[in-house]
Amino acid sequence: MKNRRETALRDELITAARYGRITPEEAEAKVREAGLSPLGKEPGAEEFDPMTESRWPLVMAIAWIAWRDVQLVKEQWAEYRSRCSHWIFREWKEPTEEGQSFEKRAGWFLEPLHGSTAVRLTMLDVLLRSESELPSSARFTPTQAERELWRALAEQRLTAEGFDRTGALIDIPAREWAHLKLYEKGEQDVLRYDALDATEAYSKVRFRREDLVSLWPRSESVDVNSLDLGSIGGQYLQPMATAASHVPLSVALCWVITQGGTASISVRDKEAWQLGVSKLLPRISDGSIEAIGRDQSQIGGVLPGVAFASIEVPWPVFQSMEQILGESETHIRCHLFAGSEEWKKDHNDQFFIKGGLRPQWTHLEVRRDHVLKLWPTPSTKSNSLKDCKLWLTEMMQASPTKRLKTKDECRKEARQKFGPIAIGQFQRIWAAAIEQTGATDWSKAGPRSSRSDRNGK
Known about the structure:
- The chain is of the alpha+beta class and about 450 residues long.
- It has helices spanning about 1-20, 25-35, 60-65, 70-75, 80, 120-130, 140-155, 210-215, 250-255, 270-285, 320-325, 340-345, 370-375, 380-400, 405-420, 425-435, 450-455; strands at about 55, 85-95, 100-110, 160-165, 170, 180-185, 190, 205-210, 245-250, 290-295, 300, 330-335, 350, 360-365.
- The longest helix is centred in the last third of the chain and has 19 residues, at about 380-400.
């Protein structure tokens, strides 16, 4: 009799929530008052510990490489999710008593958790970042983690096992990973050679948990928002130094932002990125710079310049949930250049139409000589001035409260290191270095130089 009353109470509360008469919080409060277990279920921590499992599937492996958090890895575990249920708000229709029409209803439904996949990890990552709930142990986004995983597999630093098309359980050869791609099918991650393949190349892919943890250990916690992502330079600009006719759009933007590689700009500098966008895109839209790309059939061609007029090009370090779900305005999604092979796959610049989950154009590029005509390669002199300033700032940062050398001594040494630098140019670099480092003690007057030195060039 007691169990029957408990079941009746649960059914009554679930029905009331479904019709919107009570909230999930109120329903859960009532079952607590009755001394019953919660309606929404979650297994105890002792029942599911992913660190005791010998094998992990793809989604758990990628979650670990990205976040290094046991709880987040557990939440992607299919068996764990099958034991969980949660409240979801839905609108629904109910037949009228006459059965001739339907009435619109709205309320809360108690449903099991759907399966997790690598694609959904990306949306979860965006949500965690937007709500400042990403664990401090995180090292990569899921997309970056997937690339790390593929690289380790191709380089034979890690082995995966799975069932091939004949149903045999095998170790997947390292050479295969250069051709295998990850897709989602029925809330499952599947591996195929091509999206149009009728069957999966491998199924039920698993990795040894201890191998994953060994390759990607959970190191000391750090504040992910304060990680030094470095400066825009090096590989981000490399295509500009080639003889290529076109370069990726993001490379051209980095070229403009850094004044041809002479300015040290942090990858985190969102304002500098937007300033570069405001300079480059109008020259594409007015026809001064040619842009090309590939359409959804992967056919390349010249793109209309007007398409780039007043379009949003978000900071590539962070993507909003609206951009991930295709709900944002028409925009260009850029990726900082990570090498030719990465760029050929999916790590390239893409043009999205509002509401579209698939890009209208991919592999966006611009004419390299058109960019150089507007923003020429800096002269050797410009580079020497940049190097001189860097040398001064490093010296001042090393001893901000005690001047190690006089200004004249520094100028003489700079001429030896970096070639002829005019007095006026050195004065400006000196003042800029003091302002940047805050080493005001270096601005104090020192011994006067001789006439011959003051007149030196």
